[in-house]
């Protein structure tokens, strides 16, 4: 297989009034689109809305604020924002702001699940407010934080991983597709099955549901990445993931 990935330097940003938005890895997975966005210092914008779809903004650089209705959220560190579906919001930049945005279409089944219960939107969370968790597929020098867990909002979940040595080595992974956003000072090897590529800060990649994969800091380097996952099944998607049998 060929790993679906793009390097930061290959992302073309065309600015208009201080705002740029470029789609990344179009068509790699049905129902989820992803964009790299930059808002220049001093600029403000009301981004487009997408109807019956969830927007997830992963804000990896910059300072500013988001206004959604009567709420104002201040961007001062790595932050995450999800507006209510089809709700307009205003993004203002004090310094250049970099965003990786996911747009997740909601099927009729997703909307039915959503109608039974979900987190209240708009949702905003700073990295410093995220919950740290342990996972045995990670090296001792690797730490993980959850931003959103399964069934809190449709079929999405995402979090943050940082490592000073080693990283994440996962086997199988059949329930979810995964995207990776490299930020801060990152220099890693991404492996999917038997294929490996090098990735650095600002790079973006996709791992389909199923294959063994790993993200490991290169010797003497560090790693920081956002993982974003989407359950492939529309119903009964929170399932037990048995260990892959060793051959």
Description:
This protein has 247 residues and is mostly beta strands. The chain is built from one helix and 21 strands. The chain has one helix at 108-116, and strands at residues 4-6, 19-23, 32-39, 44-45, 53-61, 64-68, 71-75, 79-82, 90-93, 97-105, 123-126, 131-133, 142-148, 156-163, 167-170, 176-182, 187-192, 195-200, 204-207, 213-217, 223-231. A seven-stranded antiparallel beta sheet has the order 1-19-16-21-14-13-12, with no helix packed on it. A six-stranded antiparallel beta sheet has the order 2-3-10-5-8-11, with no helix packed on it. Strand 6 (64-68) and strand 7 (71-75) form a beta hairpin. The radius of gyration is 18 Å and the shape is globular. The two termini are 21 Å apart. 33% of the residues are buried. The model has no long low-confidence stretch (mean pLDDT 94).
Helix and strand run: EEEEEEEEEEHEEEEEEEEEEE
CA distance, first residue to last residue: 21 Å
Overall average residue pLDDT: 94
**Class inferred from helices and paired strands:** mainly beta
Shape: globular
Helix amount, in percent? under 10%
Report low-confidence residues grouped into runs of 5 or more.
none
How much strand content do the residues show? over 45%
User: What is Rg?
Assistant: 18 Å
Q: Sheet with the most strands?
A: 7 strands, antiparallel
Beta strand count: 21
Biggest sheet: strand arrangement: 1-19-16-21-14-13-12
Report the total helices: 1
Topology summary:
Blueprint: E1 4-6, E2 19-23, E3 32-39, E4 44-45, E5 53-61, E6 64-68, E7 71-75, E8 79-82, E9 90-93, E10 97-105, H1 108-116, E11 123-126, E12 131-133, E13 142-148, E14 156-163, E15 167-170, E16 176-182, E17 187-192, E18 195-200, E19 204-207, E20 213-217, E21 223-231
Antiparallel strand pairs: 1-19, 2-3, 3-10, 4-9, 5-8, 5-10, 6-7, 6-9, 8-11, 12-13, 13-14, 14-21, 15-20, 16-19, 16-21, 17-18, 17-20
């Amino acid at each position: 297989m060929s790993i679906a990935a793009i390097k930061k330097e290959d992302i073309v940003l065309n600015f208009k009034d201080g705002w740029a938005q470029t789609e990344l890895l179009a068509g790699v997975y049905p129902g989820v689109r992803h964009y790299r966005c930059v808002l220049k210092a001093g600029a403000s914008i009301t981004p487009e809305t997408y109807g019956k779809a969830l927007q997830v903004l992963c804000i990896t650089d910059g300072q500013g604020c988001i206004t959604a209705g009567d709420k104002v959220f201040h961007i001062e560190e790595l932050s995450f924002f999800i507006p209510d579906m089809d709700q307009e919001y205003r993004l203002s930049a004090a310094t250049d702001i970099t965003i990786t945005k996911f747009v997740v279409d909601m099927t009729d089944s997703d909307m039915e699940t959503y109608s039974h219960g979900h987190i209240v939107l708009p949702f905003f969370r700073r990295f410093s407010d995220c919950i740290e968790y342990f996972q045995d597929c990670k090296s001792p020098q690797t730490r993980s934080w959850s931003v959103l867990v399964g069934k809190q909002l449709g079929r999405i979940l995402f979090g943050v991983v940082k490592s000073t040595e080693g990283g994440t080595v996962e086997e199988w992974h059949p329930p979810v597709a995964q995207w990776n956003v490299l930020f801060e000072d990152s220099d890693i090897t991404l492996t999917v099955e038997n294929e490996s590529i090098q990735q650095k800060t600002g790079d973006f990649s996709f791992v389909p549901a199923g294959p063994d994969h790993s993200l490991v800091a290169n010797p003497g380097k560090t790693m920081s990445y956002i993982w974003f996952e989407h359950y492939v099944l529309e119903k009964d998607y929170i399932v037990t993931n048995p260990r892959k049998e060793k051959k």
